[in-house]
Write a structure and sequence with these properties.
The chain has 294 residues and is α/β, with parallel strands linked by helices. The protein has two domains: 75 residues, Roll (Ubiquitin-like (UB roll)), CATH 3.10.20; 164 residues, Rossmann fold. It has seven helices and 14 strands. The chain is elongated.
Length: 294
């Protein structure tokens, strides 16, 4: 007679064999089902819709499959998609900051795109032109772009061999651009910014026959607040074309110059007043004045 303990062992073995067979069947079924799952739809979403889209969905497709412009991923097996490789492929597009690809439970391929955000238009002395973004990256022009951005001319810095002073200048370009973009008045008034050999900034304006010297300062709010007060004076006196140069690079002063003489708008207490006086002074009044430090 077979012992009871032996029968229990046999049942125990059979039980685990059945469980193992069931798990294997489920695993094989799942793998088989996964292999036959296909891409049913593609959803491309730009995560920064408030910005001007510098790339479109067709360009995203061409960036993903550059050698297969007519290739359609719809109906292709999901297992054939290397999502990590496709994300790396998208990163080669200079206008894409980040890309995230994934399939949802409905077999839809989602492509989430974060674009780079240009803040300035740069022109080199040779006539080349680029965009600059908030991360100091140079972006190529596009034939379909129409963006109102601050324009900087005489941009002569080589990003591949930047010095510390060059890096500081690019930071100032980005900072000034963001300041201008956040003020509709200055965005409309400032025509372009010339980068001088000493990395100082010189502004050309839309209204008024004058240039504005900013020097190498970067405290934009105090400088432009004083300039706006001076503009209010110009408007009251109808004297927009009286001065050829307005110099803001000296601390607590605004120096106005015309062909025959230099004028100085007095200290900051007067500039903060609604009544601004401009005494006529000698042309060499500011020869010993040192530009303020940042």
């Amino acid at each position: 007679m077979i012992k009871k303990s032996t029968i229990l062992k046999i049942f125990n073995i059979l039980f685990w064999l059945l469980i193992g067979s069931g798990l294997s069947f489920l695993l094989i079924s799942a793998i088989t089902k996964e292999k036959v799952k296909v891409c049913k739809q593609i959803e491309i979403e730009f995560l920064d819709e408030k910005l001007i889209n510098m790339i479109d969905k067709q360009e995203v497709h061409n960036s993903l499959w550059p050698s297969q412009s007519n290739w359609q991923p719809l109906g292709k097996q999901i297992t054939s998609f290397d999502l990590f490789a496709l994300e790396n492929q998208l990163s080669k597009n200079p206008w894409i900051e980040n890309a995230d690809l994934y399939f949802d439970n409905q077999d839809v391929l989602h492509i989430d795109i974060k674009q780079k955000h240009p803040v300035a238009r740069l022109f080199t002395p040779e006539g080349s032109s680029y965009y600059l973004d908030n991360h100091f990256s140079l972006l190529p022009l596009k034939s379909t772009d129409h963006i109102a951005l601050p324009v900087f001319t005489n941009f002569y810095i080589n990003p591949a061999g930047m010095k510390r002073s060059d890096s500081a200048t690019i930071e100032r370009i980005t900072s000034l651009s963001n300041f201008i973009l956040n003020d509709s008045f200055w965005l409309a008034q400032i025509e372009s910014i010339y980068i001088k050999p000493d990395n100082g900034f010189e502004l050309s304006t839309q209204v008024g026959d004058h240039t504005i010297e900013l020097g190498v300062r970067n405290d934009w709010s105090p400088m432009f607040n004083k300039l706006k007060l001076l503009y209010q004076k110009f408007n009251r006196e109808q004297s927009w074309n009286r001065y050829t140069n307005i110099n803001l690079q000296y601390k607590d002063q605004v120096v106005c110059e015309r062909s025959s003489a230099k004028m100085i708008v007095a200290d900051s207490t007067q500039l903060d007043s609604t009544q601004i006086t401009v005494p006529v002074l000698n042309t060499n009044i500011n020869q010993n004045t040192n530009p303020s430090k940042k």
